[in-house]
């Protein structure tokens, strides 16, 4: 009787473990495996910034009172195209506002590898919305990381506020 109960429990456990494998996970694994850091996007066509505050989520940036809200989103375009959409909103007109070290990363060799790094700013503005489109190599998971940047000169002494942000990752197959 004990052997039958043990066999039944083991069979049920095995059946549930086989049924619980996610098809989305298997489909997004790719040739380089699944990333062990970062967050996989629930939507295969849109990855959200982990620290976005533009739509009321995430933390409140106002460390020095220069940056009001931040946003970073990654979209799948047609084919192998990825689109970055970023926003940095200041609390006032700033001498310099934008993005420092925008980085397109690909999961490769069990780590996030930088594909491209650049910065972009606007002078004398209270906000900066930025869009960037690029074609990537299929078969990998991708994400964007960036630092939102705001600078205001106070009597020739700059006050600088920065906030790190990263999108969840998307698989491009």
Automatic annotation (TrEMBL):
| Organism domain of life | Bacteria
Q: Which residues form the signal peptide?
A: 1-26
Arranged from A to Z, the UniProt key words for this protein are:
Signal
Q: Where is this region: Disordered?
A: 28-47
Q: What is this protein called?
A: Uncharacterized protein
Q: Upper taxonomic classification of the species?
A: Bacteria, Bacillati, Bacillota, Clostridia, Eubacteriales
